[in-house]
Amino acid sequence: MLTHGGDIAGYFDQYGCEPLDFSANVSPLGLPEGVRQAVIDSLSTADQYPDPLCRRLRAAIGAFEGVDPSHILCGNGAADLIFRLVLAVKPKRALVPAPTFAEYETALESCGCAVTHAVLQRADDFRVTEAFLSYLDPAPELVFLCQPNNPTGQPVDRALLETVLQRCEAAGSILVLDECFVPLLDDGPAYTMKDRLDSPNLFLLKAFTKTYAMAGLRLGYALCSNEPLLQDMARCGQPWSVSTVAQAAGIAALQETAYVERLHRLIAAERPRLAAGLCDCGCTVLGSRANFVFFSAKPGLDAALRKQGILIRSCANYHGLDETYYRVAIRTAPDNEKLLAAVSQCMEE
């Protein structure tokens, strides 16, 4: 069962060829050319230690996000920052929705934290609703939300996020809002909580992974005005977690506006086409809004597609889901057509 993105290496070991990978939610356009060149150029300095404070990168992110660089902490992907946050806070109780990104709970359990699941309902298309508020009493030290949620692709209403943040402020809790997929929403600016960074109880997670196809370079960052918390987090990891290559790639990626526009056009065109095609195959699509489609179908679909050289994400290991739920990333039109043809055949067998 896949738990972290694609399993291309494992597939190659088994079948001797590379699959068509729909299991990892990264840009299908590949590494932006400016990023590729920055990686190549940075190799000449690979014999030097990277800047442990990521000063040039933080300055570039600050300009891009409109945030004071002192409120930015860079890490070896968003997952690194999740673990650092948990190590810094050492919470005894935390709240996560179910289903959601498994790395939150993995990090929390690593420090012995008791995790409460706010179970999302199929009747609500697995949206986070006002029922989530009932789980905030008694107050957990950390509250995790993913915007939009992974694997469901459902965004959380901005007004509800405001209420959750207010409850966290009153109780002294920290709201950890994972916005790694926000740049890929059609109306991303309407869903970010970046304008509420004045609150020391808000912690935003960002990453270069999805938008710029930089999964292998490992680069993420946190936005938070609680500087003592960021300092504690910095001490909870080794000092050279972000390589020279990754720092150079991040700075270059922030200049790739044309690439991002092209990616948005592809997602806008292919997401409804892929969702409709899956419905035509007999699957039930459940309202995804990001760069992937969440759906239900017969058990074993992932195994059947794997034999045809296609990887999709089984969601059976998510709390609240079973082996009938799947997630597929949006790829190019030709790739999506291959997926739909294979799904149609598998659903008829």
Description:
By secondary structure, the protein is α/β, with parallel strands linked by helices. 38% of the residues lie in helices and 15% in strands. It is built from 12 helices and 13 strands. It has helices at residues 8-15, 33-42, 55-65, 78-89, 102-110, 158-171, 209-212, 227-235, 244-253, 257-280, 301-307, 333-348; strands at residues 20-21, 72-75, 93-98, 114-119, 142-146, 174-178, 202-207, 220-223, 284-285, 292-296, 310-311, 313-314, 325-329. Strands 2-8-7-6-5-3-4 form a 7-stranded mixed β-sheet, with helices on both faces. Strands 9-10-13-12 form a 4-stranded antiparallel β-sheet, with helices on one face. Helix 5 (102-110) links the parallel strand 3 (93-98) and strand 4. Helix 3 (55-65) runs parallel beside helix 9. The protein is globular. The two termini are 22 Å apart.
The rounded Rg comes to 20 Å
Low-pLDDT regions: none
Q: What summary fits the major beta sheet?
A: 7 strands, mixed
Taken as a percent bin, the fraction of beta residues is 15-25%
Q: What structural class do the secondary elements suggest?
A: alpha/beta
Tell me, briefly, the overall form: globular
Helix-strand sequence: HEHHEHEHEEHEEHEHHHEEHEEEH
Please state the average pLDDT score.
94
Total E-strand runs: 13
Strand numbers in spatial order across the main sheet? 2-8-7-6-5-3-4
| Portion of residues within helices | 25-40%
* Total count of helical runs of at least 4 residues: 12
- Span of the ends, CA to CA: 22 Å
